[in-house]
Write a structure and sequence with these properties.
By secondary structure, the protein is α/β, with parallel strands linked by helices. It has one domain: Rossmann fold (3-Layer(aba) Sandwich), CATH 3.40.50. 41% of the residues lie in helices and 24% in strands. It contains nine helices and seven strands. It has a seven-stranded mixed β-sheet, sandwiched between helices. A hairpin with a 2-residue loop joins strand 6 and strand 7. It is globular, with a radius of gyration of 16 Å. The protein binds S-adenosylmethionine (SAM). S-adenosylmethionine (SAM) binds next to helix 4.
Length: 225
């Protein structure tokens, strides 16, 4: 498989190809998503030795498919509550798999995932925690971290809170796109919550980015053996 440099322009070309059989709305959202969400930087956070990755709240599966395309992983599993998004992810992978050797599985049932209790080298949660009720965030993370292999990597990316107007713009974005009034989780609060839980996680790195009016943060954690 040919290894190419990561570029948002190239990502839009993949989105056009992979989501060609999906609705116009899904196609446009995926095509422009890398300009809003720093997929390029997030792909770089996946360690070199990762084979399998679980993408929690994977949406249409674009991040997982990019991770496969750029040889960051060889095996992706995506889970999302939204069955329409899962169906889009499956269609997109059906197009992609003709050209790559990796595998991907997209599911909407937690039961299936937890029954198999397969362990993953990496788990990513990209812009999903602000959709989970605040009171359930830690139990949500704890549930999935049980599926992280020893020494595995957890990557959490969410929306920043440093600027009130960026925060408001993001709330407006989700109100229009997801028809949901989301609740930001300040990174400091998230770190404190994760520290108190018994996840055997150690925080490795913290990142911040701004894209247009969107503010992002990400943490990488490792699971102690
Ligand atoms: C902003 S989208 C992000 C999608 C994808 N991670 C990406 O970055 O393109 C948030 C996704 O989280 C999903 N979601 C929300 N709550 C969830 C839950 N409790 N379990 C699984 N997925 C969830 C939504 O259905 C939606 O697809």
């Amino acid at each position: 498989m040919k290894k190419t440099a990561l570029s948002n322009y190239e990502f839009t070309k993949w989105a056009e190809l992979w989501y060609k059989d999906c609705s116009i709305k899904s196609r446009l959202l995926q095509k422009y998503r890398p300009f809003i969400c720093p997929f390029k930087d997030l792909l770089e956070l996946i360690p070199d030795d990762v084979d399998s990755m679980l993408d929690v709240g994977c949406g249409n599966g674009f991040f997982s498919l990019l991770a496969l395309q750029y040889n960051k992983i060889s095996n992706a599993t995506g889970i999302d509550l939204n069955s329409n998004s899962i169906s889009n992810a499956k269609k997109a992978f059906a197009t992609q798999k003709m050209h790559i050797s990796g595998t991907a599985k997209f599911i909407s049932s937690e039961a299936e995932l937890f029954t198999n209790s397969t362990k993953f080298d990496a788990i990513v949660m990209i812009d999903v925690l602000h959709h989970v009720p605040s009171i359930e965030v830690i139990s949500f993370v704890e549930r999935y971290v049980k599926l992280l292999a020893d020494n595995g990597t957890l990557i959490i990316k969410d929306m920043g809170v440093n600027s009130w107007w960026r925060k408001a713009a993001n709330q407006l974005h989700d109100l229009v796109i997801a028809r949901e009034w989301i609740h930001h989780i300040p990174p400091t609060q998230l770190v404190e919550m994760l520290k108190k839980s018994e996840l055997c996680l150690s925080k490795d790195k913290y990142f911040e980015w701004n894209t247009y009016w969107y503010e992002h943060y990400a943490f990488t954690y490792s699971k102690k053996a």
